[in-house]
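Structure in, sequence out. Go:
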């Protein structure tokens, strides 16, 4: 079966490519034939933003591309459709207040609000902590394009929830952002019609 994926590489670039014959490589990667490169390549599952069976148009979970890769009730399998929102909110946290216990608690609640998960709070927290979201170094050097590209994959129905949690993350005394620029970022990135 041929599968079309939208993939975010390690530098944050989004590409669309067709793959076939996926095989488990590690717990976090698959090995598949990449038709764009005409060779087998490794793909990180958490960087596959979208996957579709080209012959049927069926939307596929990246974690189910390889049989028995992930249990259907694993965090990865249950969150794949909302993963761009989770990554964007984590990246927002990392680039504003940081990612200490306080901010992680908000992210954990956000994940649990989006998806009913059977895992413990500790397992969810560990998963959120390990989730790769974007290249901080490029962002700090002024390259926002790749992060803003990630925002395009957030379903519009989730923008209001993202906005509410972003406000909680940056909330200081009386839930007002400590930095006025953070409020502007929330409006730009998680508003009803993102301004980028």
């Amino acid at each position: 079966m041929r599968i079309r994926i939208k993939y975010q590489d390690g530098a944050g670039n989004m590409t669309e490519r067709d793959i076939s014959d996926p095989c488990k490589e590690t717990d976090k990667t698959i090995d598949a034939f990449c038709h764009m490169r005409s060779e087998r390549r490794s793909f990180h599952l958490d960087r596959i933003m979208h996957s579709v069976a080209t012959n049927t148009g069926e939307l596929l979970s990246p974690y189910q591309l390889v049989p028995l890769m992930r249990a259907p009730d694993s965090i990865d399998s249950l969150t794949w459709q909302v993963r761009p929102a989770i990554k964007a909110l984590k990246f927002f946290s990392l680039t504003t207040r940081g990612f200490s216990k306080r901010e992680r608690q908000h992210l954990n609640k956000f994940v649990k609000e989006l998806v009913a998960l059977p895992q413990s709070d500790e397992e969810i927290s560990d998963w959120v902590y390990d989730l790769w979201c974007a290249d901080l170094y490029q962002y700090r050097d002024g390259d926002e394009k790749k992060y803003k590209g990630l925002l395009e994959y957030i379903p519009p129905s989730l923008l209001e929830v993202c906005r509410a949690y972003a406000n909680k993350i940056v909330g200081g005394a009386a839930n007002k952002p400590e930095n006025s620029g953070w409020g502007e970022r929330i409006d730009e990135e998680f508003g009803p019609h993102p301004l980028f």
